[in-house]
Structures are given as C-alpha cells and as structure tokens.
Amino acid sequence: MTDANFSRPGAVDLSSLSGSGAPAAGGYVMDLTEADFEAVVGRSAKHPVIVEFHSPRDPSGSAVSESLKDIVNAAAGRFLLARVDVDAEPRLAQALGVQAVPTVVALIGGQLAPLFQGTSSREDISAVLDQVAQLAVANGLTGRAEPVAGAPTSGDEEPPTNPRFDKADAALAAGDFSRAVTEFDALLKETPRDAEVIAGRAQAALLDRSTGFDAAAIVRAASEKPDDLPAQFDAADLEVINGRYEEAFDRLLGLAAEVAAEDRDPIRVRLLELFEVAGRTEQVVLKARRRLATVLF
Predict the structure, then answer these.
(1) Which of 202, 274, 211, 236 is nearest to 6 (CA)?
(2) SS3 content of the chain, % helix, strand, coil (to 5)
(3) Taking the mean position of all CA atoms in its chain, how far away is CA 291?
(4) pLDDT tens digit string along 73-127?
(5) In degrees, to the nearest 5, what angle opens at C-alpha 169 toward C-alphas 76 and 248?
(6) Which of 57, 139, 122, 119 has the alpha carbon at shortest distance from 90?
(7) Alpha-carbon span 257 to 191, nearest angstrom
(8) Where is the Thioredoxin domain (predicted)?
(9) Which long-range contacts (C-beta less than 8 Å, at least 24 apart) are formed by 87-91?
C-alpha cells in the first residue's frame, strides 16, 4: 500500500489485507516447536496464525502443505503459517488434541479455531483462509505478520507518531471503528485534501461496516440478488477485506455499467473509498479508475 495508508505507530494496519507484493526471503512460513508456541500465540493477538500439523511420513498431506504455503505467502503478511511436525513435536500435538494429519487450525486473538482435517483442495483451503481473514478483521485483528527471515532494517522503522491522529488511532486501537470514522471526519474538515486522512477514514469505515459480517450469508445474498446494491456493496467489502481488490472493483464497475446514469453515484462513491483502502497508486486501482471514468463519461 502507499505512504498515504496507515504507517504511523498505533494505527490499524490494513496493508495486511492486500495480497499484492512478493514476500521477503523466507516468506511467512515457520516451523513451530513446543518452545516457540507461547510466542506464536502472542502473535495471534495482531494477526491470524494458521497452524498446520503434518508428518513427513504422510505423503497424502504434501498437497495440503504446498497449498497452505502458496496461499499464505501470496497473502504477504495477512497470515503467518506455523507448521508442526507431529513426529518431532508429539507433546504439542497431543496437548492440542490432534488425532490425525494433516490437521489445520487457526489462532485468532489467542483462541484456537479448528479449520479442517485431512486432505482438501487448494480452492477449499483458500476459501477457508478467506473466512479466517474476515473473522480476524471483524474482531479488530488487522496487523501484518513479519516475514520469517530477517529482522526489519533501519529503513523499515516507523515514523514518529503524529499527534493529530491520536484520537482516531485510540478509537481504532479500542475497536471503536464508528468513533474512528467520526474523528477522521473532524480531521477532514481541517484538511479536506489530506491523503493520509482520506485513506484513514476509508479504512476505518470499512472496518466499521465489516463488524459482524457473515461471509457465507454475504456471498449467498450477492449471488441471489445481483442487482441489489447493498448486497453487492457488502460482497465488494468482503472481497477487499480478503485482498481480492480486482474482484471487488470488477463487481462494482459491472454494476455501475448496468444501472441508470442517475443511480451510479453511490457506486462511484463506494469505489473511490475502496480505492483508498487498496492504495491510490496501486496498478489495480489505476486500472479500475480508468474503467470507472469510461463508465461515467
């Protein structure tokens, strides 16, 4: 995401929602041991941790392992994948009640959530992890996992906090996203063209709307009601939360092309807001902006 997005200390980082960008060397996959377990549980307070219990003696689980690695690394920090070799760490597997491999669970805010056991297709695994990401955001877990290899360099240090954003940041940290929107609106009255404030307001509004989302119900409603604006807005929000920006933009641009000209403005406004969440200089946003201009004019 661009510099206009949340990069200051204390702000909720929605860059973890983007699947763009290649992961650093080592990616977002680690081997988990009993000694590391408590530390990894602590990380789940910031972002979801996917825990895979596997065995080198189980060739049928290799496809699941590869799919998990690919999906997690492609998400570029939305998740951390922690892999437990049950042969090397039998006590950890036993303590968590693992009875077969592969078994995959999620750690979200320190809580263990079973995902699936046995083999599963890449598509099904991707859908499950999308639901994990949505659940994490709905609970205010919007941090970004650090790449496993290498510590941050001095060039990666965050800039000093800007006191202008203290109230908005405090609301975000408290999970009060509605209040955060109000605080950003107040800042926009002072500096209506401030790119950081505009992006912050867009991200806070997305978090506010997505609280309590039921992913399955949203997908079903969008499929059953292709012309229903609220249903399509919710589906686009869900896609953005899960880093599927192009799908979200395609959905709303297609809808804008179909409705009457006088009904396009709400779609335009929502698209502009989601462009800010994705990052206004991202290629997928620039492409969608061009399409939007064609639809409108």
Answers:
(1) 202
(2) 55, 10, 35
(3) 25
(4) 888 788 999 999 999 999 999 988 899 999 999 999 888 999 999 999 988 998 8
(5) 45
(6) 57
(7) 33
(8) 16-134
(9) 87/55, 87/56, 87/57, 88/33, 89/32, 89/33, 89/34, 91/34
Alpha-carbon dihedral of residues 223, 283, 263, 207, nearest 10 degrees? 70
The position carrying tokens 């799919």 is 67
Domains, the chain, ranges and CATH?
Answer: 27-138 (3.40.30.10), 167-297 (no CATH)
Say which residue the tokens 């997505």 belong to: 210
Please report how the helices 245-258 and 265-278 are oriented relative to each other, as an axis angle in degrees rounded to 10: 170
Q: What is the pTM of this model?
A: 0.54
DSSP E strands, 60-102: 80-85
User: Quick count: other Cβ atoms within 10 Å of Cβ 125?
Assistant: 22
Under a CB-based contact definition with an 8 Å cutoff, are residues 204 and 213 in contact? no
Q: Which residue has the tokens 């926009």?
A: 188
Query: pLDDT tens digit string along 250-265?
Result: 999 999 999 998 899 9
What contacts 161, CB < 8 A, 6 or more positions away? 8, 9, 10, 169
